[in-house]
């Protein structure tokens, strides 16, 4: 813990030296390397927090957003799974801005030194056939791995119920996959569906499917708060890549009809836009990258960042997650719990590999349920300007 604190101080001072340039005060770390003091700063029930209700601003209420929707739900429902923010180069920049939007909301309520820790799933991937037992799905971190999330940090969140069913499909991100992506020299090489080995968005997709349940579909994924930890890691790895190739945003890949470089990013069915507007290509620039700072992922070289829940496997030269202790009852009963078949409080979302017609119908129902919360209306401000220091986060003021 002493070392972790020292590391934290280090990251603070690093952030401080860059503060003038970046207006930022906090470093993002792998969750398992949190110090006790960082734990206090992580708002554990963001979706439940009464203060967060302050962000459910009058604009929204006058616009017919259901009163039981809290700020978290509203932000989560922005992630529609549209192909204008997925399946192409804007995936990286759109999700970076989206992550910053969420972070801005957290910081407006909890203060500027709150940040989203990232989840490096390669530490769990390295567990091989024991991945389902990873300690990251224990009370200390993500909580319940199978069924409704009733334990852990995000237990029993109000509103849309979240569900998981880890390990049946998809896969976690291996160190080799990350190394393969980072071995490329241009963004165009890591955004091609056809080049599986280097297709970073694809590696990201299968993590969503590995968690399953709420996380499995774009429409619902962001309702599970672990979404942000997964995407913070995507953002971290992308940043390693972006820095390495040096010539972003000029390197923004062309030839994706739905992801033209000069298109303005849109949020929530294209009604909300950051103000000032950001193009897909501009999202690749350092201006936005500098709004987040990452501590290096745990490695044997940094003693797994002194995490008590990781150990270094010297043979493989990789940090590996410990297993959940046997007493944690949700480690068992997988089959019973995974057969619930509902998620989000909306009827009958099949979990796992239901046939695709059923899945589509169910997803359309979710879409309808989400959309009815957002009737067409006059332009909105997503946040009150004076609730967020405009200098702290460049994109924290969302506007149409
Ligand atoms: Cu994702």
Automatic annotation (TrEMBL):
EC number(s) in its UniProt entry?
1.14.18.1
Gene3D superfamilies in alphabetical order? Di-copper center containing domain from catechol oxidase (1.10.1280.10)
Q: Which GO terms describe its molecular function?
A: metal ion binding; tyrosinase activity
Entry keyword set: Copper, Metal-binding, Oxidoreductase
Pfam families recorded for this chain?
A: Tyrosinase
What is the protein's name according to its record? TYR
Listed SUPFAM superfamilies: Di-copper centre-containing domain (SSF48056)
Query: Which PANTHER family does this entry report, sorted A to Z?
Result: TYROSINASE FAMILY MEMBER, TYROSINASE-LIKE PROTEIN TYR-1-RELATED
List, for all copies, the residue spans of the domain called Tyrosinase copper-binding: 86-103, 224-235
């Amino acid at each position: 813990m002493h070392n972790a604190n020292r590391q934290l101080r280090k990251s603070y001072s690093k952030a401080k030296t860059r503060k003038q340039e970046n207006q930022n005060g906090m470093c993002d770390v792998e969750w398992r390397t949190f110090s006790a003091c960082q734990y206090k700063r992580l708002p554990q029930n963001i979706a439940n927090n009464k203060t967060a209700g302050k962000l459910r601003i009058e604009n929204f209420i006058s616009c017919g957003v259901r009163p039981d929707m809290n700020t978290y739900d509203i932000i989560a429902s922005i992630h529609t799974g549209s192909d204008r923010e997925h399946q192409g180069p804007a995936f990286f920049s759109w999700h970076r801005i989206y992550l910053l939007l969420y972070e801005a909301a957290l910081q407006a309520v909890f203060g500027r030194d709150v940040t989203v820790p990232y989840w490096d799933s390669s530490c769990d991937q390295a567990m091989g056939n024991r991945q389902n037992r990873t300690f990251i799905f224990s009370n200390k971190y993500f909580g319940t791995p199978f069924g409704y999330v009733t334990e852990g940090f995000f237990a029993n969140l109000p509103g849309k119920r979240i569900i998981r069913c880890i390990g049946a499909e998809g896969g976690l991100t291996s160190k080799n996959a990350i190394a393969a992506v980072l071995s490329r020299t241009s963004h165009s090489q890591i955004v091609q569906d056809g080049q599986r080995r280097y297709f970073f968005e694809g590696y990201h997709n299968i993590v969503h499917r590995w968690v399953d349940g709420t996380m499995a579909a774009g429409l619902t994924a962001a309702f599970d708060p672990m979404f942000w930890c997964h995407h913070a890691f995507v953002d971290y790895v992308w940043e390693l890549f972006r820095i390495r190739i040096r010539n972003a945003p000029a390197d923004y890949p062309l030839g994706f009809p739905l992801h033209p470089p000069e298109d303005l990013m849109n949020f929530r069915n294209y009604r909300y836009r950051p103000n000032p507007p950001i193009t897909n290509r501009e999202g690749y620039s350092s201006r936005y990258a500098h709004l987040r700072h990452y501590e290096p992922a745990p490695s044997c070289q940094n003693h797994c960042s002194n995490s008590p829940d990781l150990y270094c496997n010297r043979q493989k030269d990789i940090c590996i997650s410990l297993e959940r202790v046997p007493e944690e009852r949700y480690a068992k009963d997988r089959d019973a719990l995974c057969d619930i078949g509902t998620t989000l409080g909306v009827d009958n979302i099949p979990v796992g590999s239901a046939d695709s017609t059923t899945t589509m119908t169910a997803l359309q129902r979710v879409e309808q349920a989400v959309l009815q919360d957002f009737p067409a209306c006059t332009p909105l401000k997503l946040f009150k300007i004076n609730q967020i220091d405009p200098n702290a986060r460049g994109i924290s003021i969302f506007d149409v």
